[in-house]
Each structure stands twice: as C-alpha cells, then as structure tokens.
Predict the 3D structure of the following.
Amino acid sequence: MSDHTATAHDKPAATHDSHGHDEHHGSVLEHVKPYLIVGAALFLFTVITVALSYIHFDKIGIFVWAFDKIGVHGFTINIVIGMAVATFKVCLVGAWFMHLKQEKSSVWTPLLFTFFFVAGLFLLFAFAYADPIPGTIEWKH
Amino acid sequence: MEIPYTVHPRPDTGLANPKLGIWLFIASEVMLFGGLFAGYIFMRLGAEPWMWPQGWLNVPVGTFNTFILIASSVTIILSWECLKMRKYKAFKAWLAATWICGLAFLVVKLAYEWPTKFHHYGGYVKKEAAAKYEKYLGNKDTKDAKGSHVDGHETRKKYPRLFIGGHLDTDKDPDAQTAANVPLVTAAQLDAVLAMGATEQNAAKKAKLLANRAKALKQIVVRDLDIAILLKPNVTAEEKASVLHKMNTIHVHSVDAENGDPYDPSNDSAHFIPRPQKDVDHLVIEKADLYPGHGSFVPKLNTYLATYFMITGLHGAHVLAGCIVFIYFWLPIKGGAKLYTTNHAQLCNRIEVSGLFWHLVDLIWIFVFPLFYLL
Amino acid sequence: MAYAAIHTHEAHGHDDHDHHELGFWRKWVFATDHKVIGIQYLTTGLAFLLFGFMLMLLMRWSIAHGAQPLQGWFGAAMHTIFGNDVFVLTENFKMTDGSLISGYSLTSQGYNVFGAMHGTIMVFFGIVPIAMAGFGNFVMPLQIGAVDMAFPRLNMASYWSFFISCVFMVASFFVPGSAAQSGWTNYPPLAGIANFPGTLSADGDMLGVWTNGGTLWLLGMVFNITGSLLGSINFITTIVQLRAPGMTWGRLPFFCWAQFITAYLLVLAFPPLESAAVMNLFDRVFGSAFFMPTGLVVTTVTSAAGIVPAYSGGGSPILWQHLFWFLAHPEVYVLILPAIGMVTEIIACNSRKPIWGYKAMVGAILVLGFLSFIVWAHHMYMTGMGPKVSAFFQTTTILISVPSVILLTALLLSLWGGSIRFNTPMLFATAFLPMFGIGGLTGIPLAFNAIDLFMHDTYYVIGHFHYVVAPGTIFAIFAGCYHWYPKATGRMMSEFWGKVHFWGSLVSINCVFFPMLAQGMAGAHRRWYDGGAGSYSETLGNAIQWNGFMSKWAWVLGLFQLVFIYNFFWSLFRGKKVPNDNPWNATTLEWQTPTPPPHGNFIKPIHVYRAAYEYSVPGADKDYTPQDEPPAGEALPVPAKAPALAH
Ligand code: HEM
Ligand SMILES: [Cu+2]
C-alpha cells in the first residue's frame, strides 16, 4: 500500500466532490434511465412469474422430457422454473440497483464466498437428506 | 480524534468504511435468510405432499406488495441520484415515496394478510376418519350424470384431500376460535388438572397450585361457564363428560371453496382470484378425528404456515427497520436531511448505504413471493 | 496522522468530537473507545469464565457422587441460590461406609441445568468475549496503528447487545423450572420440550411462555449472536480500512490476521444459527414444529396441567443439528484462532526471533477458515447419514487438519534457536503448544466415521475438545493477560504468583482432562448425571473410578485460579510500575504508544516500514526493531501540521 497520506482528504473540504461522482447538473432522466428500464423489467418478470405458476409444466411433454434429464418431476418443475426467474430478477437488482456491475473487489470477494457458503448450506443439506442409511428415512418427494 | 475514511474512500481499497460495513452486513443477512430458506427446503422436502398447501395466500395482494417493493427500490435509487445532482426537492420527494411504499407494504401485511389468517380455521382429518367427512373431502371416485370420472385426476388418488378449512361461528360463540385451538383433552388429563393441589400439605404451595389449576383450566376448557360447572363441589360424571364433549368438538359455519365443492376438479389447482367460502348447515368436526395442530392459521397449524410467518415476519421487521432509517434521513435533523448543506458527501453515503440495505430487502422478497404465494 | 488535523476543519455532522473530557458514564459505561470496550468485554468474559467454572464444579460433583448430599452449609447455600428444581433435601443418604447423612443434593434436572449452562457460558460468554472481542478490541486497533475501531458507536452497541444476552442467561437461573437443560448444543426434540411453558416447577409455579429457561436461553443467544455479528463487521472493516500507512497485509501482525479470519467466520457462520434460534423460539412460543417430528408423544401429568404440547409434527430434529453445526464447527475455530494469534505474538516476542513461516501460517488460516464451512457434519455421523455424505465430510475434516498442523509446526519451529525468556506469558504460550497438539491429534480419529460411531458422545470427545479449549485457548488467554496487562494498566503482574498459577494449572488441568480420553475409550458416555454409576458401573469397570479423581483435581485447578484472581487485583495497585512504554522490548505497534494509551491511541503519526517480527536483526543496534522505525538513513516524515490528537 503505497503513499496514502496524499489522499482525497487533502483536498479543500468545500468542493465535496471527492465522492467519485461527477456532478452533472444535466437531465436527471438521462441518468436514471437504466434504473427505470431495470425497474420495468422487474415488473414484467413479476407478471411472468405469476403467469408461469398457473401453467402445469408437468403436463407439457417437452418440459417433462427436458426436466427428466436432471431428475426433476411433477410440480417440482414449476418450482425450478419459478426459482430460475426469481434468481434472474435478483441478479438484475444486484447488478444495477446495488451496482455490483462496477463494484470493487473488496466487495466482490467476500460476497463470492458468501454465495459459495450459502450454496454449500443448501446443497450439503440436500445431499445429507438424499443419502440416508438405506431404510432409515422415508422419501417424501 | 477523527476516524479516517468515514466519508471518503480509502485509495487502495476504493471504499469508505460505511460501504464496506453495509456489504458485510448484507453478507451476514444473506447467510441469515440462507438459514431460514434452508429450513423451508427441509420442511418442504420432509412434508407429506398432501400436507404442503397451495393457494392459501391471496395472490393479487401478494403481487401488489411485490410491485410496491420493486417500485420503492426504484424510488430510492432516484432519490440518491437526485441527491448527487443536488436536486433537493426531488431527493426528498423520492425518499418520501420510498418509505411510504415501505409502510404501505407493512399495512397490507399487518392489517390485511395476517389477520385474515388468524380468523381462518382448519385441520387435517386423520386418514382413518376421512370417510366420515367425505362430503367435504371428496376422495371417493364418484361419477357424474354422464358416467365419466369427475374425480379422475391422479393426485387425489395418491394423496387424498384431508384438509378442511373454513370459518367458525364466532357470532354465536365468541370463544369458538380459542376453543378450537385447544388440543384434544382426554378425561385423564382433565382429571389431572382438577386434582391439582388436592393432596398438597404445604399451605403456600397448595395456594399456588390452586391458582395454577384455574389458569390451566382456562387454557384447556376456555369457557367460564364450563369451568364453573367443573369447579362445583359435586360435579357429576355426566357434567364432566358433557364439558369434555363440548371442548372436543368444533362447529363449523362455512368452509373453503374446495371443501364446499370437493368434486369440482378446478378446485384442485390454485386460483389467481380467491374463491368465496361456502356456508354449511351443520358440520361438526371431532378433534379426535384430526391430526394435532388444528386451529387458526397460525404457525402451529403446519410447517408451511410456520415457515410463512417466520420468514415474512423477519422480512417485515427488515422493512420496518428500513422505513425508520429512511424517515430519519428524510427529517430535517442533524444526522438527516440537514446534512444536505452541512456535509453533502456524507448524506450521499448514507442514502447509498441504506439504499443497499433496502435492495437486499427487496431481493429477499423476490424469493419469498413465488415460494409462498405461487409454488 | 496528518489527515486528522486537516479533517477537523471540515464542517462535519459528526458528534463524536472528543475535545473535552468525557464524564464517567460516557468514558467507562457507554464507552466508544475500543480499549475501554475491550476491557469491558474482558472483565465480563472473565467473570463468566469463573461462573461457568463453578457450575462445572457442581456438575462434576453430581458425576462423581450422584445424589450424595453436599456439605451441610454449602448445600444449603446452593439450595438458597438455585432453588428446589436444582437441589433437593435428601434425608439419610447411605454412604459407602454405611453411615447416613442428610443435606441438599443435586437433582438430575439440576445436573442438566449445570451441564447445559456450563457449556453455553464457557463458549459464548467466556472464551469468545475474551479472546475475540476483548483482546481483539483492545489490541487489534493498536497493532494496526488505528485511532479506534471503524464504527465506535456500533462497537458500543455490540457490547451492550452482548450484555443484554448475559442478563438473559443469568436471569434464566431464577425463573420457575431453572435454566436451560438441553446441553450447549440445545438439541431438539429435548430443546423443544425441556422447561416447557405451562408445566409446573418443583415449587408448583407454572412456567411462563417467555419466562422459562429454554426460551430465555434462545433469547440470550439471539442477542449474543447479534452482538457478535455487529462486532465482527466492525473488526473486518477496521482491519481493511484503518491500517496505518505502510501497514501492508504482509506486515500485519499475525494476531490481526487471526482476528480477521475469526471475524469472517462469525459474520458468515453465525447467522444460520440465529435463524435456527428463531425457529426454535417459534417452536417453543408459538407451538410450531420446525424441529418436532411427527408422532412425538409428550404427555406428562404436569404438561396436562397446562398448555398441552401437541405438535403438528412434520419437523426435523436433524435440521437443527445442521444449522447448529454449520455455525458450531466454525465456532471452534473462533475459539482457537485468536488464541493462536496471541500465542504467536508472545512466542515471537519472548524467543526474540521472527516467526518461522509467517506466510505459511497466514495461508494456513485462510485455508482453515474456508474449509471450516464444509466439515460440519462430522458432528453428525450418528444421525443416519449415508456413506457418501460421510465420506465427503470425513475427507474435508482430514483436509482441515493439515492447516492446523502447519500452524502448530510453525510455532514449534519458531522456538528453535531462540534465546527464550521464560516469563509467565511465555510459559503459558509454550504450554499451549503441546496441549493444543493433544487436542488436535485426538480429533483426527474422530474424523473417521467408523471410529466416531463408537467414540461419539463419549468422554473421549469431551477430552478432545477440552484439550483444545481449556489448556489450549484458556492458557493462551492467561498468556495474553500477563502479556498485555502492563499496556492496559501501566503495571506488571507478579512473576512469582504468575509462575505458581502456571505450574499449578498445568498439572491439575492435565489431571482433569487426560483421564477423560481413557474413560471415553472405555465407553463412558457424556451427559450421565451419575457418571454411569447407576446403570453402567459393570460395563465401565475400573474406568468409573476416574470420576472422583477428575472431580477432585477440578477443585485443585480452581484453587490455583484464585492465585490468578489475587494477582490480577493485587498488581492493579501494587504491581511493579512499567519501566517504559515497551517493557517486553516488542516490535509491534501497540507498544509504541503511551501507557496506557490515550483516547486516539498514538501521539505521533504512525508510518510502518517493516514486517511484524523484526527481532534480532543482524547488524541492528538492539535486538528488536519496531515496525514504525524508519530504515536507517530515512528521515521521519514531517507532519504537515501539528497533530490534533494529543490531549
Ligand atoms: C485437528 C483438527 C480437528 C479435528 C480433526 C476435529 C474433529 C472433531 C470431530 C470429528 C468431532 C466430533 C466428535 C463427535 O461428536 O463424535 C469433534 C468434536 C469437537 N471438537 Fe474437534 N477437531 C479438531 C480440532 C478442534 C479444535 C481446534 C477445536 C477448538 C476448540 C475443536 C473443538 C471441538 C468441540 C467443541 C467438539 C465437541 C462438540 C460437542 O459435541 O459438544 N476441535 N472434533
Ligand atoms: Cu467440528
């Protein structure tokens, strides 16, 4: 870590612009357009999620066939599709609203570990659940 | 003494302290809700399929709340952008819009969604007693006038419908709801309660036990009139039996659509618009015929409601916290909107950081909504 | 710090400009200064360590002597404190020599109370608050050259959240039915039904829905976890953001690295336990069934006399175990890493030579931190996990012992060729190494599920982890106390009493814990209130005799802790005054401050020029070179303006 005595703090306090943002006094709309688009997309995908939940994917041949490949059957197909859409929406929120698109590695690194551990939590739970000593736990799904 | 980097980023990390702090907090929140959702997954995997309800929640209302929350995520960003561009009025307006959205979300939840649950009643009929309630469960393979199967769908055959839900006649009997929540009471249990303190020698302890007997009676017999009967000096066996019978039966006033019309296949799948309840003449359910955990739609009823209340409850607490913080920043006070003139950069930071938290709240809801309302 | 001077000219909204003397309440009670908060944590933690120790003495009495009444006046006193649920009057108890005695003896429920609360208090209220929050708060900001923690008020909030949790835990002893009874692991279904609301206590009081031991335990844990989370966020932010100029990651003292990883473990592992605690609260308070399986029959006469625990069922006790161990395995590293950090500092300083393999050690704790998240189910081999899952967790567990061994090896090799000063802190630090070694090595057999099926829940496991935490972590804590005491108080602790404390503790602690390993292998199960005497004396054979032996040595161990307590307070007033700010001739920055350090810590601007442990550098004029000493020929940077810190 080199010389950080000459930081932003040495600038005169009055300018207040050391925040790293350009102080455009231009049109707000132009600035916030991406957010509005993402917001609209989130609305749209909410409607899509609701609509999808009323489709019986387990009655549609192609879906039954495709999901059979990953061992997913019945109503669980709907759950997987619903969660996929939700994950997509969450990525939109993360990338644009939370600015993860342009965030520093000091933020990214811990977050990556967090996601890894959450995934571990879910998957290893499921793994432990799916591999009982034969005859001890009854499968419900 | 001044702590460095409270407002301005440190050059080598590129972050100011609060921003790193909030991201770590978000990481821990992700793990917290990760734990809760792990609970959900476990509960759902472990539940008997017929025990995991669908279509219990009001989807239009849930969708409305989802829209509100997404809208507030947009308004907080707009507020922050306006603040950075030094448009004070717009900043305040969007910030106000954000917390108003948040409060609206809470009002819908607390004034409508939760209370309707508490007023609902339901229970799972034991498999062996299902035939008794066939009229409301519709598991038999009946044929309509044309001779085709009305009940031909596979699911019902594999997983019989065992749930009866509806409303109790609380007009006639204000205690009906409370009484319905009390688990089955056996004669032996009742006797044990009535005998509390009877043989105690120590006077002080006896007084305590008698006081506790009154409390316990209130909990298992509920109605004062019945308690008075039981506490009579010469209570007869018939009187006891009749109180017990009263406690162990439930008089249902109206039932949910799928119980009202159990043979209609369209009642088997979820509906966007909730269907109305159907009045019933005289449905009496015996608690002995139900699995434990019958009663109001509260966490005790089944693991679905338990996860529902826990996750939406904790999420609601986060919404409330966010609203409080936003209102604080919105008010013209020292740590709030006044910072606009005294320390603009710090106010920007505060809005950004609280905004990050707010997006997290939104993000959690994006998972909660389909999991509980739709799937 | 040059920027500090400039910064004050900014028209800030900050309200913690401390240009005036703080009053007593702001300075010592609602303090925001990291050193004061550190001392608050340390003293609270030490008090709880003592409290937990005393609970253990009572618990061990029950193991060794079963229902035999306690000494007359002592039993009466205990009965007055803990009440009828925990102590009962036993008339004419027949001793082995045939004589009859009467007095108050522990109930089996009382044994459960003491066992559960001993574990909980030692782990969450003793060691973590001391080793992590206490020493971390006091030493870490000094070592990185920071003026304070990044969020001082959050720091205060952490402590007070912790304090509230302490109040819950202590209060839980005094509600009807006494404190929690289901072990520090709080396994359901017992955790769902012990101290159940609506049941009656021994006095005939009805247990309240919120005021009963089990629920208060959970509430306490929720506050404790919240405090830990806030504290850890603060620790990480401080280490990342507030390192002094020149304090690169490679120059960071190892203690700070250990705190850094520990804080990450807490931030990411504690929340799932918090969620589990909330679920368990729902089970207890709202009658849900997260952890209560279908078909569980819980009907006793007293439960009929209140809310009848009828669970809807459908829950899974295993879910709790997963969520609990997802935290609690990382938690064991939370218990040991700060200890290793302290030992490292003390060994480097007292062997007058740089740490051997600093980089390898840093790498090792990074790997260890990562792996600790994916080994948890090695505590759950007995839950019906199939061979595939067992093999997975067995593999990761064995992998994780590699970094542990690296740490131990590096520390051992650091002693090699040093000119060691065996003062009290160093004695404790060196003793830590073999003790931690025994603890770690006894863990390795447990990692294999074939062996663990036999060993699980025996005294062997108790021996294993106590070797790590008691003569391990607690010795490191003592080492830390003796080492940093002069910095905090300006006086040295007595060397003579320190050595008495050390040798006494070393001998007695091994007499307490070593037999456990043997007893466990002979089949002695943990959590038997009579130590197996009632039903298992034949199976256990001679091994049962160790119960009395260990219990006696536990009292001896306690006696030697009195020496420490005496020394601690005596030295506060009578201890030798420190000759200078750096009595141990150490290199790290906490010794380059005034003693005790003022608010704001440093009176001169700090710039770091060198690695953490430059002891005995060839050619240097003294055998230590502080981190902020500029290389020869380079002048100190002149601060732009007079520092505004000195006051
Ligand atoms: C060398 C690495 C280690 C290995 C391979 C290891 C392995 C294990 C295993 C497999 C168990 C479960 C035994 C059972 O319940 O049947 C266990 C228990 C335990 N270990 Fe370790 N361990 C190691 C180091 C540590 C460390 C450093 C600590 C720190 C304090 C620790 C603390 C504990 C505790 C507290 C328990 C018992 C928890 C309980 O059931 O109450 N272990 N260990
Ligand atoms: Cu472990």
